[in-house]
Write a structure and sequence with these properties.
Structural class: mainly alpha
Helix content: over 70%
Low-confidence stretches: 1-5, 200-205
Shape: globular
Mean pLDDT: 84
Order of helices and strands: HHHHHHHH
Radius of gyration: 18 Å
Strand content: under 5%
Number of strands: 0
Number of domains: 1
Number of helices: 8
Distance between the termini: 33 Å
Largest sheet: none
Length: 205
């Protein structure tokens, strides 16, 4: 019965993520995201993470599903940042994206994505990997937070029209409205798991 419940919870999680992704694609395709202020992006990231944290802390099926996602899957998802970063560098060089922002976001994501890929391939499980996982969490969170801040500077202070044009359009809209919130959430999940494991070990002594 437990295995059936876990499979059902995991299936519900993938359905929820798929629905979220499809909704973002539909909104971007309709042009609805173009009407939003650039401030909508950090507000969206904050709001979705608050919702996810509350759902996780409430327990139940959602928490079971999230806890059932292996760390290798989390690192594999984070590794996608290398591809996203490479696309930023490319489109920045082509002048499609603001050059300074694209270089900042692109190379940072490439470094973090390669780091994540190395952890995924190496397994990165167990206490002996804990400090490396925590280093990844700190570096990855600092990078994604700095990219968000830089994006707001480009949009609101520099007022680079390219940012306003590209951010709400496909396929770029998927990144701030789907990938970025999950980047924050999965970083938080890695930290919570390590803190929980460390607490259990200290309690056993």
């Amino acid at each position: 019965m437990t295995e059936v419940r876990e499979d059902g919870s995991r299936g519900a999680l993938w359905v929820w993520l798929s629905a979220w992704l499809l909704a973002v694609i539909a909104l971007a395709a309709s042009g609805a995201l173009r009407a939003l202020s650039p401030v909508a992006i950090p507000l969206w990231v904050l709001t979705t993470n608050v919702v996810m944290v509350r759902a996780y802390r409430r327990g139940g099926a959602m928490r079971d599903a999230v806890d059932g996602v292996g760390s290798a899957w989390v690192f594999s998802f984070q590794a996608l940042r290398a591809l996203i970063g490479a696309s930023f560098v490319y489109f920045g060089a082509k002048g499609v994206l603001p050059e300074a922002w694209a270089a900042h976001a692109g190379w940072g994501d490439i470094v973090v994505g390669v780091f994540a890929a190395a952890l995924a391939l190496g397994g990165a499980s167990g206490a002996r990997w804990r400090w490396l996982r925590m280093a990844f969490a700190v570096i990855g969170l600092a990078d994604i937070a700095s990219v968000l801040v830089h994006a707001q500077i480009v949009a609101l202070i520099v007022k680079d029209a390219r940012f306003f044009t590209v951010a709400p359009s496909l396929p770029f809209a998927v990144i701030p409205y789907f990938v970025v919130p999950l980047v924050f959430a999965t970083h938080a999940l890695l930290v919570v798991r390590d803190l929980r494991a460390a607490g259990l070990r200290s309690g056993e002594r």
